[in-house]
Amino acid sequence: MKPFRRVARIGVPVAVFIALTTGGLGCTRRPAAAASPREATTPSATPSNDSLARARQQFIDQVTRQIAGRENELATTVFRNVQALTFQVTAAQLVRSMDFFDRSLGVGCNYCHIIGRWEEDSLRTKRIARQMIRLNGTINNELGKIREFERPVGVACWTCHRGLTRPARPTL
Ligand code: HEC
Ligand code: HEC
Fold first, then answer.
1. Fewer Cβ atoms within 10 A, N terminus or C terminus of the chain?
2. pLDDT-derived band of residue 9, with 50, 70 and 90 as boundaries?
3. What are the residue ranges spanned by the domains of the chain?
4. Top mutation candidate among 128, 169, 171 for ligand 2, by most atoms within 8 Å of CB
5. What's the pTM?
6. Ligand 2 midpoint to CA 133 (Å)
7. By CB neighbour count within 10 A (0-12 exposed, 13-18 middle, 19+ buried), where does 126 fall?
8. What's the gap in Å between 147 CA and the centre of ligand 1?
9. Which atom of ligand 2 is nearest to the CA of 159?
10. Confidence band (pLDDT; 50, 70, 90) for 40?
11. For residues 67 and 115, what is the distance between their CA atoms, to the nearest angstrom?
12. pLDDT tens-digit profile of 100-148?
């Protein structure tokens, strides 16, 4: 768990969120064959969302080229309007989180952004997503208080959304 240790000093809830959304806990991009029951929540590309995945990759590549050489600087210094992914999140980690958001909600970048004008907050979905990032932090903070786990635990977008913009509601 080296990646986790490396970020642990910035606070467990933040570290867990970064790790979960960027693959630092080994939760993303695992081949299906290697998945154990504990990793069953991993979002993955399925044949049905191939074209979505291609479009998403194109924009990821575009942004990655724009930040070339500055990947390891803080996202807040590289990008123009970062208000939630603030604490020790690098530019490269922010980009990986965007990919994770897409896969968790089953959408493309245009669900939250006007393509190319990434810093704008004009879409309600982006404004909600920012509050969801904070909600995640609050939940992970509370989870961190449950000492009996004796291991890093946390939620991220996929935990609830599982490929849907609106998570399923329980039938009561
Ligand atoms: C579910 C909503 C959502 C999706 C989908 C999404 N983003 Fe974002 N994006 C955000 C939010 C929210 C922020 C601001 C984060 C903050 O304030 O800390 C952001 C910020 C950004 C920024 C920084 C812009 C700046 O200058 O401040 C870039 C670049 C970006 N997104 C690119 C992408 C790309 C590329 C994709 C598709 C792969 C994508 N986003 C998909 C919600 C989303
Ligand atoms: C604890 C569960 C939970 C987590 C974790 C979570 N969400 Fe949500 N999210 C919800 C619920 C519940 C709704 C409201 C769904 C509804 O309208 O019925 C929602 C709604 C949204 C919406 C608005 C959908 C719409 O069309 O109105 C966006 C965007 C969103 N979430 C993004 C995110 C992102 C990005 C993350 C990760 C940073 C995230 N969520 C993490 C539970 C969660």
1. C
2. very low
3. 2-161
4. 128
5. 0.86
6. 9
7. middle
8. 33
9. 5
10. very low
11. 16
12. 999 999 999 999 999 999 999 999 999 999 999 999 999 999 999 999 9
Any idea what DSSP says for residue 93?
H
47 pLDDT more than 50: no
Q: Looking up tokens 């123009």, which residue turns up? A: 80
Check if 140 has its Cβ closer than 6 Å to any atom of ligand 2: no
3-class DSSP state of 108: coil
The b-or-e profile of 137-150 (16+ CB within 10 A means b, else e) is bebbbebbeeeeee
Ligand showing the shortest atom-to-Cα distance for residue 95: 1
Kindly give the number of the ligand 2 atom that is closest to the alpha carbon of 139. 1
Q: What is the pLDDT of residues 148-157, one digit of tens each?
A: 999 999 999 9
Radius of gyration of the chain (CA): 16
Task: Give the Cα-Cα-Cα angle 138, 79, 64 (nearest 5 degrees).
Answer: 105
What is the token pair recorded at 22? 């960027």
Q: Residues 48-59: pLDDT tens digits?
A: 568 889 999 999
